[in-house]
Specification:
There is one protein chain. The protein has 171 residues and is an alpha+beta fold. The protein is built from 5 helices and 6 strands, in the order αααββαββαββ. It has helices at residues 2-15, 21-30, 32-42, 67-80, 118-139, and strands at 48-49, 56-57, 92-97, 107-112, 153-156, 159-162. The strands form 3 sheets. Strands 1-2 form a two-stranded antiparallel ribbon. A two-stranded antiparallel ribbon has the order 3-4. The chain has a two-stranded antiparallel sheet with strand order 5-6. A hairpin with a 6-residue loop joins strand 1 (48-49) and strand 2 (56-57). Helix 1 (2-15) runs antiparallel to helix 2. It is globular and about 45 Å long.
Amino acid sequence: MRLSFIAIAVLALSACNNSSQAETQTLAAEKPNQAQQLDNQLKPAPKQLVTTKNPIRVENMQMTATPESIAQGYKQIHELTADKSCDSTEQCQVVAVGSRACGGANEYLVFSTKTADAAQVKALAEEITVQERQFNLKTGAVSICEHLMRPSTQCQQSQCVKIQGSSSSVY
């Protein structure tokens, strides 16, 4: 269908070029590869999960994320960050975890670098986010479209806590 449309468009445009009909048909016959290339360019690109590390093509991918694997990831990250002990506010960090169907993080998790390896926490948060994004796209999931603000943290009484009523810029 598209190839026919492109061939007609090529003919119509070349007619405006004051070329004879024979020349137009010859040009259209000589350039089927260009028409095919143009047709390929007009096809919509497959949806992608965009992460900071690598995009994942959704259309041709096996479904690996399940509600159970996502729940297990959340359990694992909450266990990893359960001890929020700190000596200073610099040890308190926040990481975005998960993906809501209409965009944004599912939660912001406060953790302490004194008790948890920041690289491990961030890698697990990224894995959960990718899985949840994949699951949402493949299943057509819907969710509340509330935008969560990234909270600020500080060390109070040797524990990392969210500062109530404040947020830091997510940009």
